[in-house]
């Protein structure tokens, strides 16, 4: 029989195989889609194959704004939680503040692990405090907490303050020329310089060169290749399959860059007997002191945690700064009131921006708090259930391995929590008013034992950068910016669909 004669049979065999495979997948999904019904929990009707996701493709690798829709449906039906599906994976969205507190604080031991893809076997250099599980996380948290003490914050304050100088020079240049500023890029350069200085003791040079290595790497992390995005997508669909296939989250070139920076930095400090008060020194000391220990702090741990702090340190803070400036530009009365407080407080401190001066800024902190209510950089907190858990006053038991999601954006935009939630109103967080806010509906840094370890540092660098800008410059929105800005769907960290361009005028 000729090859041409075999071709129809081959095509028939391939077609039959594909149809059989599709039917197997469809039956698997269909059965999974009965999970919450079998559990006796309220749920949102899923659709094949997305479940309750509303983004398909390489951008749908994290819980994003779709959780606002889940939340609204649960609230409308009077549910304290509601079942949904991440592709075929059952997810429980928690709505009730008391249940949120149970998951993140009171019964934390049932929900110790973050729901975020990582691959310890095939990608050990990207294991960090952010993704570490159970006992490994507890050890890392204990070891890394000292870097964010009050004493360390005071020392880092001056370093961060100096990092703002190049940014302010750029503001001065644009103020004179009248050119609009792509503000997200500007504040991202600032926070990148801060992390380069505080974490590595290095000048990242983001404002002096378009090819500054740390800024290039920062962009690469959030403009990753199709391959990396596909790895994240498969990891969201099926964690075990992605891990088995050796998929990874961070591009290998990024990991290699940080490995080289750490190796060279550590070598220089050891050979020249140099000690600095920064993250690099703390991790280097941990690494040296635990050599030879079975559960010691390995070089892979070193690299992974440096990468994690770099990502968290520059992107979340730059996102917050971007959103604060957006709302101040939209609300000139709030902007003027903020500027007035900054000037008044600085006068009390001899005109110098100090650690103590930042602590005295009451209204300024209200502006940041209100921004974080409307625009939490991390849009959802997701925890894996590590042992079966039954919610109080319910018959629903969450099984090990199921993800429980706390929808931060939805909580902040709920009129039951905040009247007229779409209005930017810093007075919600005045000393008198904020006492009426349920603490479990305002958690932009998470809550409980696994809240953000770098919260204080993030707020400090955000405050320093913003105070310098608002004190010296009036900001307005340039006509190049499509208004109002819309939030992007299908992304882990909050992002707008278009760029924000600001006009800046010297006060």
From TrEMBL:
<dbReference type="InterPro" id="IPR002401">
    <property type="entry name" value="Cyt_P450_E_grp-I"/>
</dbReference>
<dbReference type="InterPro" id="IPR036396">
    <property type="entry name" value="Cyt_P450_sf"/>
</dbReference>
<keyword id="KW-0560">Oxidoreductase</keyword>
<feature type="transmembrane region" description="Helical">
    <location>
        <begin position="6"/>
        <end position="29"/>
    </location>
</feature>
<dbReference type="GO" id="GO:0020037">
    <property type="term" value="F:heme binding"/>
</dbReference>
<keyword id="KW-0812">Transmembrane</keyword>
<dbReference type="GO" id="GO:0005789">
    <property type="term" value="C:endoplasmic reticulum membrane"/>
</dbReference>
<comment type="similarity">
    <text>Belongs to the cytochrome P450 family.</text>
</comment>
<keyword id="KW-0256">Endoplasmic reticulum</keyword>
<dbReference type="GO" id="GO:0005506">
    <property type="term" value="F:iron ion binding"/>
</dbReference>
<keyword id="KW-0408">Iron</keyword>
<dbReference type="InterPro" id="IPR050476">
    <property type="entry name" value="Insect_CytP450_Detox"/>
</dbReference>
<dbReference type="InterPro" id="IPR001128">
    <property type="entry name" value="Cyt_P450"/>
</dbReference>
<keyword id="KW-1133">Transmembrane helix</keyword>
<keyword id="KW-0349">Heme</keyword>
<dbReference type="Pfam" id="PF00067">
    <property type="entry name" value="p450"/>
</dbReference>
<feature type="binding site" description="axial binding residue">
    <location>
        <position position="452"/>
    </location>
    <ligand>
        <name>heme</name>
    </ligand>
</feature>
<dbReference type="GO" id="GO:0016705">
    <property type="term" value="F:oxidoreductase activity, acting on paired donors, with incorporation or reduction of molecular oxygen"/>
</dbReference>
<keyword id="KW-0479">Metal-binding</keyword>
<keyword id="KW-0492">Microsome</keyword>
<dbReference type="GO" id="GO:0004497">
    <property type="term" value="F:monooxygenase activity"/>
</dbReference>
<dbReference type="InterPro" id="IPR017972">
    <property type="entry name" value="Cyt_P450_CS"/>
</dbReference>
<protein>
    <submittedName>
        <fullName>Cytochrome P450 CYP6DJ1</fullName>
    </submittedName>
</protein>
<keyword id="KW-0472">Membrane</keyword>
<keyword id="KW-0503">Monooxygenase</keyword>
């Amino acid at each position: 029989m000729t090859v041409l004669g075999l071709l129809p049979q081959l095509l028939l065999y391939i077609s039959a195989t594909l149809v059989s495979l599709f039917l197997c997948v469809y039956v698997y999904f269909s059965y999974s889609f009965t999970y919450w019904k079998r559990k006796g929990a309220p749920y949102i009707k899923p659709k094949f194959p997305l479940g309750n996701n509303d983004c398909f493709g390489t951008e749908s690798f994290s819980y994003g704004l779709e959780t606002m829709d889940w939340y609204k449906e649960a609230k409308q039906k009077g549910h304290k939680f509601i079942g949904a599906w991440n592709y075929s994976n059952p997810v429980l969205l928690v709505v009730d503040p008391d249940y949120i507190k149970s998951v993140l604080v009171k019964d934390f031991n049932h929900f110790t692990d973050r729901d975020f893809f990582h691959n310890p076997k095939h990608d050990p250099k990207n294991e960090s405090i952010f993704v570490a599980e159970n006992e490994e996380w507890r050890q890392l948290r204990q070891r890394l907490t000292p870097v964010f003490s009050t004493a360390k914050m005071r020392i880092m304050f001056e370093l961060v303050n100096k990092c703002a100088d190049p940014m302010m020079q750029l503001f001065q240049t644009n103020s004179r020329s009248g050119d609009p500023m792509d503000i997200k890029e500007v504040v991202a350069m600032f926070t990148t310089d801060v992390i380069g200085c505080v974490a590595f003791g290095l000048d990242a040079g983001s404002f002096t060169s378009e090819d500054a290595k740390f800024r290039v790497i920062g962009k690469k992390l959030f403009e990753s290749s199709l391959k990396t995005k596909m790895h994240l997508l498969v990891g969201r669909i099926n964690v075990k399959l992605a891990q088995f296939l050796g998929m990874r989250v961070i591009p290998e070139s990024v990991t290699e860059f940080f490995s080289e920076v750490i190796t060279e930095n550590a070598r220089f400090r050891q050979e020249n007997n140099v000690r600095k008060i920064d993250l690099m020194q703390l991790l280097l000391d941990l690494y040296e002191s635990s050599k030879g220990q079975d559960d010691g702090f390995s070089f892979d741990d070193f690299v992974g945690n440096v990468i994690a702090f770099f990502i968290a340190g520059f992107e979340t803070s730059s996102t917050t700064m971007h959103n604060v400036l957006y709302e101040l530009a939209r609300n000139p009365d709030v902007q003027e009131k903020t500027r007035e407080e900054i000037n008044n407080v600085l006068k009390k401190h001899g005109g110098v921006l100090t650690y103590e001066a930042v602590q005295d800024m009451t209204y300024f902190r209200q502006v940041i708090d209100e921004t974080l209510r409307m625009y939490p950089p991390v849009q959802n907190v997701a925890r894996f259930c590590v042992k079966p858990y039954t919610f109080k006053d319910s018959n629903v038991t969450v099984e090990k391995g199921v993800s429980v999601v706390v929808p931060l954006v939805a909580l902040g935009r709920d009129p039951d929590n905040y009247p007229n939630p779409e209005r930017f109103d810093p007075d919600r967080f005045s000393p008198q008013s904020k006492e009426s806010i349920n603490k479990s509906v305002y958690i932009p840094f998470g809550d409980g034992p696994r809240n953000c370890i770098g919260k204080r540092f993030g707020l400090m660098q955000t405050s320093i950068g913003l105070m310098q800008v608002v004190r010296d410059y009036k900001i307005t929105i340039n006509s190049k910016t499509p208004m109002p800005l819309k939030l992007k769907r299908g992304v882990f960290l909050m992002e707008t669909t278009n760029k924000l361009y600001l006009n800046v005028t010297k006060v």
